[in-house]
Structures are given as structure tokens and as C-alpha cells.
Write a structure and sequence with these properties.
elongated; alpha+beta
């Protein structure tokens, strides 16, 4: 049997990939949080210090408590690194054209998200993305409110004309006052009201098909708006 296909070689590759993932996570986090290294070391030092203290107070084996403290500190370090990597990933793509779409692609089941924007301003790269879920139709807008107001009003009127019984929600993504930060976008979607109207899976499918048929011609994505380029590193964000 070839050594490249042996269990030992596969295990070594998995371990190497795991180490590389940790390095990627640390690199991403450090760009936004330069102190991340000190924080990880601090957690480790505090964990070992508490272990020694507990060993003294309980008169139990130092080795036992040190091992327990080390394992706990490493677990907390992984959780902290995962949390910081996720925040750093969002921070680093915030403001990039198409960044909202990169986040919307991760919202999971229960949502239909159109692959191209329903409204675009080529000169300013303001974009309106459209999605359908249990709360109804959601317009996710990238760009200042005053500049995108007309685009949103036109799309809302169209939706109300063809889907008069389906609620329409608008989420303005950005860093200005009154806008939703990129890192809060998924949480904002989860908190959208589903009363008095809550679409079923069948209704979501029907609404999505109707909207797709109306926008079959689609809108070209202007140069500079590329959701794939704004996509955060999912593997690093999960801390794996």
C-alpha cells in the first residue's frame, strides 16, 4: 500500500491542515486586533496560575491541576481566536462593494437569495440585494441612506404592486448612524418580525419564483462589485 494513502499519512495531513487553519485565523485576527497574541498568552498564563492556586488550596496533585488548567486555557484560546477571527473578517471587508452579499450567502436554510442585485448605481456602486424568507421580502441595501432612497422606493413600489400581501423589509448596511453594521446583518435578519404574516416554505418558493421570473433579464454587476472577492474566509471564521 502506498504511504500516501496510509492512515498515518492521512492523519498527518489533517494535523497539518489544522495547524495551517490556526495560523490563518491568527493572521486574519492580528490585522484588526494587533494585541491578539498577548491576549492568547494571557489566557494561558492565567489558566496555569489558577491551576497552581487550586492545587495549593485543595492539596491535590500539581500535575493534575496543571493539565486541567492547560486544557481549559487552550480551549478558551480557541474560542477567543474564533470569535476575534469572525469579527476581524467582517471588519476587513466592511465597506467593500458586494460585502453584504458575501454575508447573505451564509445565512443558511429558510432563505432564497438572488445571485445578482436588483438595483445598482454604477457610478457610486450602491447596490440593492433581494431575498425572501419567513418574514417576507427583504431588501438589503449597500450605500448611504440619502443616496439609495430613490432606488429603495422604486423597488418597494414594484414589490407592493405585484406582491401586495407580502411584507417588505429594508435593511441598510453601512457604518453611518441608523445603518446596520456588517457583523450584525445576520442577527438583524433573524430578528425581523414574522407577525402578522409568516411565509411557509411553499410560499417562499412561490414568491421567489415569481420574483425570479420578473427579473429574468437581470442586472449586470458593475466593475468593482464582486461578492466573491469580498467573501470572508469561512474556514478561519469557524476557527477550524
Amino acid at each position: 500500500m502506498s504511504s500516501t494513502h496510509s492512515p498515518a499519512a492521512a492523519k498527518k495531513r489533517r494535523f497539518g491542515q489544522y495547524v495551517q487553519n490556526l495560523k490563518d485565523s491568527y493572521t486574519i485576527s492580528r490585522r484588526t486586533f494587533p494585541w491578539v497574541g498577548w491576549a492568547l498568552v494571557g489566557v494561558l498564563v492565567v489558566g496555569l496560575g489558577l491551576s497552581v492556586l487550586l492545587a495549593i488550596l485543595t492539596s491535590q496533585s500539581f500535575i493534575y491541576w496543571i493539565i486541567m488548567g492547560l486544557m481549559t486555557a487552550l480551549m478558551l484560546d480557541l474560542l477567543l481566536l474564533s470569535f476575534l477571527t469572525r469579527r476581524a473578517s467582517y471588519t476587513q471587508i466592511e465597506g467593500m462593494p458586494g460585502a453584504a452579499k458575501a454575508i447573505l450567502d451564509q445565512v443558511g436554510r429558510g432563505w432564497y437569495i438572488e445571485s445578482t442585485p436588483v438595483a445598482v448605481n454604477p457610478s457610486t456602486q450602491d447596490v440593492v440585494w433581494r431575498m425572501v424568507g419567513r418574514p417576507g421580502v427583504v431588501l438589503v441595501v449597500e450605500g448611504p441612506k440619502d443616496r439609495t432612497r430613490k432606488m429603495v422606493a422604486e423597488e418597494t413600489r414594484t414589490l407592493q404592486r405585484i406582491l401586495s400581501t407580502v411584507p417588505v423589509h429594508v435593511i441598510n448596511v453601512g457604518t453611518q448612524e441608523g445603518q446596520t453594521r456588517l457583523i450584525d446583518l445576520q442577527r438583524t435578519l433573524r430578528r425581523l418580525p414574522t407577525k402578522p404574516v409568516k411565509l411557509t416554505d411553499a410560499e417562499i418558493s412561490q414568491v421567489a419564483k415569481r420574483l425570479t421570473s420578473l427579473s429574468a433579464k437581470g442586472l449586470p454587476i458593475p466593475k468593482g462589485i464582486d461578492p466573491l472577492r469580498a467573501r470572508p474566509d469561512r474556514r478561519a471564521m469557524r476557527g477550524h
